[in-house]
Amino acid sequence: MDSSSSLQLLKDSLWPLLEGMILGTIPLTAISFVLGIVIALFVALARISSLRILRGIAATFISLIRGTPLLLQLFIIFYGLPSFGIVFDPWPSAIIAFSLNVGGYAAETIRAAIQSIPKGQWEAASTIGLTRAQTLRSVILPQAARVAVPPLSNTLISLVKDTSLASAVLVTEIIRKAQELAAPTFQFFLLYGLAAVYYWIVSQSLTVLQGRLERRLNRKVAQ
């Protein structure tokens, strides 16, 4: 393929790949991250629970998630569970796998952030009549959020790139779009390179938003 044909292919592929990013990669990332943070919060609270059984379950979950490849987790949910009569479509399979993965990694970040708050904060809240749940919601978590934002932002950026694995379970996102467009022409380098540019733009945008969020949280704490 000559340079003019390559340039035309590049122009023709701009929108299909952007569509794959907007309709596939970004929603998959957003939904999985939100669900993953909810999972992570419960797992983190279980990790610092006074009940040994909860601590054990949470530690086992984290160990399994962090000790196995994300791609294998995707395969188990999409290809493995049907052996037991549990069948998920591609999108739910990917969301479940990514959410659990985020939950396993972010749980330790949230736990560390919560435990970084001085115990005196708990005691002070108790003296003014707040329950443990109220203290956690109104006092501890807002302060822990400032500590957790940078590592959780890194987790989000990593998730954007990890969603590329969803193509392995037939989810149509930017990588699968690139594969489909490149297959007739064998211009894999060109189209994967364009996909890389889109990933870079999203990652840089999230990095900028992370910086703004950190500054806003720091101003609130200073006040």
Structure notes:
There is one protein chain. This protein is mainly alpha-helical and 223 residues long. Helices cover 82% and strands 0% of the residues. It is built from 8 helices and no strands. The protein has helices at residues 3-47, 52-67, 70-80, 90-115, 119-127, 132-162, 174-182, 188-222. Helix 1 (3-47) packs across helix 4. The longest helix is centred in the first third of the chain and has 45 residues, at 3-47. The chain is flat and about 75 Å long. It starts with a helix and ends with a helix.
Shape: flat
The total beta strand count reads 0
Strand proportion: under 5%
Helix content: over 70%
Unreliable spans are: none
Biggest pleated-sheet summary? none
Structural class: mainly alpha
Distance between the termini: 61 Å
Question: Residue-averaged pLDDT, rounded?
Answer: 89
Radius of gyration: 21 Å
What's the total helix number? 8
Which characteristics define this entry?
223 residues
